[in-house]
Design brief:
Elements: H1 3-26, H2 30-55
Helix pairs in contact: 1-2
Length: 61
Amino acid sequence: MSAGESRGRVRQLRDKAQELNTAAERSTDPEERRRLHEKARRLQEQSEKEDKIDDRGMDPM
């Protein structure tokens, strides 16, 4: 994966996490809200991990 592809993937993960957080805030169901926030948190963590790997110039595979 090239650096550009990696950066694009990180951006996609962060965008999806933001979408999920927004959806969670709109949800009236507390369980659905919790589930969406949790999924957003996991995506954010994954994007941070991939960003760190990319910054070091290492291939995660």
